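Tutorial, part two.
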Amino acid sequence: MMSAPTTLDGLPVPIRETEEERLRDGHGRAITDLRLSVTDRCNYRCVYCRTGTDGAQYDDLPLEAYARMVRLFVSLGVEKIRFTGGEPLLRRGLPELIREVRAMRPKYADGGLIGRLDLALTTNGHLLEQMALPLKEAGLDRVTVSMDAVDAETMERITRVPGSLERVRAGIRAAQAVGLGPVKVNCVLLRGFNDSQIEAFAEFSRTEGVIVRFIEFMPLEEPSAEENERAWSPERVVGMDEIVARLERVRPLRALPANHTSETARRFTFDDGRGEIGIIAPVTRPFCGHCSRIRLTSDGKLRTCLFSQSDHDLAGRMMRGASDEELRQWIRGVVEHKEARHHIGEPGFLKPSRSMVHIGG
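Running the prediction step on this input gives:
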């Protein structure tokens, strides 16, 4: 008698449902990626994100509430979960939440032959050195680290935290050492702040074995009185064409194929194969047509796009006693109306109802 198939870690391969039941929006896009913010708090005050004076504005939920939400989305076909914030490493008990999510299994075939969810985390890296091993042991697959400069002075100017570069680099090394890789390093480029760092980041990728991803500045910052200093404008955006031209001065670039259809970054390596660069260009090269993402804020609000003008209270429905099946049907109804695309730079564009730090990266 043949034994039942198992995954690489010895667990039964989940029974697959038909693809027609997978969670999709009204444009036919399959929703496979969940960004979950586990706290609104952050220990950095990056100029493109925060005012430098305002703190957390929204509550955190109990970890068991996040676990139930994730389980709902996994049952609808989500296969990739990214833990975000705020700064997620500030959230006490995070490894326990990751361990519980690791025990869940994807529902559909796209989860891969090994039948595992893909678990990632985005962090500013400040606490990563001491957290890397507990995160790996809990079942996290990899980390993305936000690091907006490779020299200390520029980094501190952006984060407004002394010693931030040293802490972040130590966190990257710790993540690599425990196997949370390949480590990705995200750099948001702002003209006049850190656009001088492009070439240095190319060398950083080549020497440190990380994937560096440049991100075009988006209108997601907290409003403040410093509008002339930090507000989004087209002139502050360092676009993809300029980034590519600057990188070509380091060494000739060679394009790499996308890892999957909904990948946000255009991938490159250099002519000698050393280093990898990604460019995420939502302003000059929008990729909304293949969007597979949905977002949950730290207070349990469902957002269908970074630039949504409203959010949807999943936590409130849970607290009022809705069953899992009722919540699944409600989620399907919300996702059906997911936006086709953003409208950055177009007449009448409105910033989202929350800034990035209060949504989750």
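Confidence is low (pLDDT under 50) at residues 1-8. In part three we will examine how such features are distributed along the chain.
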